[in-house]
Design goal:
By secondary structure, the chain is of the alpha/beta class. The protein has a single domain, classed as Alpha-Beta Complex (Maf protein). 43% of the residues lie in helices and 22% in strands. It contains six helices and five strands. It has a five-stranded mixed sheet with strand order 2-1-3-4-5. Strand 4 and strand 5 form a beta hairpin. It is globular, with a radius of gyration of 14 Å.
Length: 158
């Protein structure tokens, strides 16, 4: 991944501050957790990661079904629930939730804009919410783009 050096900076900063992180990812399929684990020392800071492609498993991981029903699975509200619940589940200092659509329509969840991704970072009892439009031709390129943007935002927060 091209942004590996920046991910290393984040991992090093989390180690230095004795902070931990956990992720609940949907459309990125664990790309953020993968980028983190590519860095030596990541086991000191990455508590847990979940890939929750389906609504069913988002709910099993603590996302409130009413939030999904009211705002859709593709919303900042759902990303916030993902970030909060993964942080609580893993007892981590930082929780990151990522949900959205990349390069395809979802027949199970027929709402929301295609290629819009919602990210929430939960840290120090605050939510930092973002949305990105991922317009690259391939899913892989879009995942890389989202990871790069999340790393930038996380760096700003820390």
């Amino acid at each position: 991944m091209k942004e590996e050096f920046k991910v290393k900076e984040i991992v090093d900063e989390l180690i230095k501050r004795n902070l931990t992180i956990a992720t609940m990812e949907s459309c990125t399929g664990g790309a953020l957790a993968c980028a983190i684990t590519d860095v030596e020392g990541a086991s000191d800071i990455l508590k847990f990661s979940a890939i929750t492609y389906s609504n069913e498993y988002k709910i099993k991981m603590g996302v409130n079904k009413e939030i999904i029903d009211k705002y859709s699975v593709y919303s900042s509200n759902t990303a916030k629930e993902m970030a909060l619940n993964i942080s609580q589940f893993a007892h981590s200092d930082i929780g990151i939730g990522i949900t959205g659509k990349l390069n395809r329509a979802d027949k199970q969840n027929n709402y929301g804009k295609d290629n819009e991704v919602f990210v929430s970072i939960y840290y120090q009892k605050q939510f930092y919410n973002y949305s990105f439009i991922a317009l690259a031709k391939t899913r892989h390129e879009n995942k890389e783009y989202i990871v790069k943007e999340v790393v930038k935002k996380l760096k700003d927060i820390l």
